[in-house]
Amino acid sequence: xxxxxxxxxxxxxxxxxxxxxxxxxxxxxxxxxxxxxxxxxxxxxxxxxxxxxxxxxxxxxxxxxxxxxxxxxxxxxxxxxxxxxxxxxxxxxxxxxxxxxxxxxxxxxxxxxxxxxxxxxxxxxxxxxxxxxxxxxxxxxxxxxxxxxxxxxxxxxxxxxxxxxxxxxxxxxxxxxxxxxxxxxxxxxxxxxxxxxxxxxxxxxxxx
Length: 208
Hints:
There is one protein chain. The protein has one domain. It is about 20% helix and about 40% strand. It contains 3 helices and 12 strands. The chain has helices spanning about 5-15, 110-115, 195-205, and strands at about 25-35, 40-50, 55, 60, 65-75, 75-85, 95-105, 130-135, 140-145, 165-170, 175-185, 185.
């Protein structure tokens, strides 16, 4: 049997036997934040390539990197769906716009995560942070190893990022890779079947 036929038959046999490669997974903390003032989050579900689902929404947020949870292991994000709202500057003054999204995440997400995990010459950490950042209608997903040059040696390996995927975080304190950057739908009133509908009703009730 020649080599070309063998290369074709191996994945075919694995498919028939139900054997698929293990997904590339990372240990991460989950973070939900903003770079543009007060926001509220309803549900923001990130579905991974393996079908796992993580809700990144952490209620009221107002800073970057924002609210954090301990997280766990996850593979590359494949889809994002959720809703959030942009708040007035005052802490008790309601929301000025509502947003939602349902979108696939570019297939380069896994490659970008692998790049981030192998980016540094001398910094080796076995966990990172997956960050969902909302700013008005804009929503982004960052992955970072949280190497801070103030405390760590964050020298990158030479020539490791020919595509320029690694950028500085919004606060310019560490390196991140952007897995998703999208714009959601916008409305001046809450979208149906979101928790903001009930919040609006309660606010109207107490104001009367």
